[in-house]
Design brief:
Number of strands: 29
Largest sheet: 4 strands, antiparallel
Structural class: mainly beta
CATH class of the largest domain: Mainly Beta
Helix content: under 10%
Shape: globular
Strand order of the largest sheet: 1-22-21-20
CATH topology of the largest domain: Methylamine Dehydrogenase, Chain H
CATH superfamily of the largest domain: YVTN repeat-like/Quinoprotein amine dehydrogenase
Radius of gyration: 24 Å
Number of helices: 5
Length: 498
């Protein structure tokens, strides 16, 4: 058994769980009403670069012959200056009233693309951080030679900063997040896999998979789970209680370990689970908590109530309003976090790239700001991570990198980086790649726009789905690779998954 490092006070109190302790399990929603799955966001600004051009930038015959400078100039001059940016909102039922989070009008009557959105950060294991939904662009911590993969991110108050923790205990701070220390040259017995700040952002805790807890700044040490029974599942995270005088550790099998003033309300350790527990979320009054799994299960304890879960409602989908009708979408990726409403009578379930499911009194598309951890494992996730790393590089017609990209050059190169090879141009990518419905979009899937969405031969733009209603794309001449909102005029109602 690993020996805890000497700097935490020895002998602190810990409560251990009795086998088969009581837990409350989900029950059907009263009245049979299914909760709403909502994908927050707004439609992207997609501007067609050539309004009168008979051939689009990605036509195969155009790629086989170089463009003359006169043609380039003529096409650049034909760029349309305005774009329609309709609002995407979740709709509970066909008769539901308009969302209270509708966008406000910006210049020219178009909705402000950042109005009433919840900004959020997504950190990857490489240390890259994506700012989405209007979150500020701060920085990242791409691991150096002595660092291990980034294992956790925690946002500071007001979405103004964040901390990243690596598995070997280094801590990187950005924006308003202050640095209070890290393990540095000290070696933790097992990898660090969680960081949690105090409520005042005046300190933080690190926790290892073996149950060690290390405190920094104003964060007090109340105990660790190093002495838990042999064969215990890895610790997944640490969560402070509402008053900051205690915390819970939770394990992948649903075990819960309370310390300090944090109370124990039950665990899922004696129950069969289809996937690992990835989160513990206290109720606002501190009288209970929810456990949530990567598959979308929600397990309430204490005064926490069950309002639904994505694991039980896999056939439902959110509705996005667009000028040409509505689009349905759902998440096809791991769940990362559960966030309660202020009164605890509802919650949002969030995937690792920001798709959200709303239950109880949680309003679709209105999940609070947060920070999420994204581990690119599948080819699509790896392709997305590559594409996001190209942000800021210029749009260059016919380019496939590394200095610049056009729209299909970005998608082709990103998927090739993941070991999957697809055709060069947008229309061919759509024609040759397996189709998936918009209701099953996953990170890395390809989404398309056409002059006539019913005719794939008219496809003229392609982008890659991120999550939370976002896409990454190389839009048109004069822009750079960037994230935008999905949907809008010309959006093709089918996606492709290489």
């Amino acid at each position: 058994m690993a020996t805890p490092l000497p700097w935490p006070p020895p002998g602190a109190r810990s409560q251990w769980l009795a086998p088969g302790a009581r837990s409350r399990w989900p029950v059907p929603v009263p009245g049979g009403r299914r909760p709403v799955l909502a994908l927050k966001g707004r439609v992207s600004r997609f501007v067609q670069e050539r309004a009168l051009q008979s051939r689009n930038q990605d036509m195969t015959d155009s790629l086989r012959a170089p463009r003359r400078a006169t043609v380039r100039a003529a096409l650049a001059a034909s760029t349309i200056a305005a774009a329609i940016i309709p609002t995407l909102t979740g709709v509970a039922t066909a008769a539901a009233p308009p969302s209270p989070h509708a966008a406000t009008a910006g210049p020219g009557g178009n909705p402000d693309p950042h109005a009433s959105l919840s900004p959020y950060f997504v950190a990857t294991t490489s240390g890259a951080v994506w700012n989405l939904g209007g979150a500020p662009s701060l920085s990242s911590a791409v691991a150096g030679p002595g660092d291990r993969p980034v294992s956790s991110i925690a946002a500071a108050a007001g979405d103004s900063g964040y901390w990243l923790a690596t598995s070997n205990g280094n801590v990187f701070n950005f924006g308003s997040a202050r640095w209070f220390g890290s393990l540095g040259a000290r070696t933790a017995p097992t990898p660090v896999d969680g960081i949690a700040p105090t409520s005042s952002d005046s300190g933080y805790w690190l926790v290892t998979s073996g149950g060690n807890v290390f405190n920094f700044g104003a964060a007090a040490w109340y105990g660790s789970a190093v002495g838990r029974p042999a064969g215990g599942a890895p610790i997944e995270g640490i969560v402070p209680n509402r008053t900051g005088d205690g915390y819970w550790l939770f394990a992948s099998n649903g075990s819960v370990y309370p310390f300090g003033a944090a109370r124990w309300y039950g665990s899922a350790a004696s129950r069969p689970l289809t996937s690992a527990v990835v989160g513990l979320t206290p109720t606002p009054d501190g009288g209970g908590y929810w456990l949530s799994t990567a598959a979308g299960n929600v397990i309430p304890f204490g005064d926490a109530s069950f309002y639904g879960s994505a694991a039980m409602t896999v056939t439902q989908a959110p509705t996005w309003s667009t000028p040409s009708g509505s689009l349905a979408g759902t998440a096809a990726q791991p769940f990362e976090k559960l966030v309660p409403t202020s009164d605890g009578r509802g919650y949002w379930q969030l995937t690792s790239t920001g798709d959200s499911y709303a239950y109880g009194d949680a309003r679709p598309g209105a999940a609070p700001s947060t920070a999420l951890m994204f581990d690119p494992v599948t080819p699509g996730q790896r392709a997305l991570a590559f594409a996001m790393a190209q942000q800021g590089k210029p749009y260059v017609w016919g380019a496939t990198g590394p200095a610049g990209f056009d729209c299909s050059g970005l998608t082709e190169t990103s998927w090739a980086n993941a070991g999957v090879y697809i055709p060069r141009v947008a229309a061919d990518q759509y024609a040759s790649v397996a189709k998936v419905s918009i209701s099953s979009l996953a990170p890395g899937d390809l989404v398309f726009w056409a002059s006539n969405p019913a005719k794939p031969s008219t496809i003229q733009h392609v982008a890659m789905y991120v999550g939370g209603g976002h896409m990454v794309n190389a839009p048109y001449t004069g822009t750079v690779v960037r994230t935008d909102w999905i949907g809008g005029p010309g959006f093709v109602p089918a996606a492709a998954r290489p």
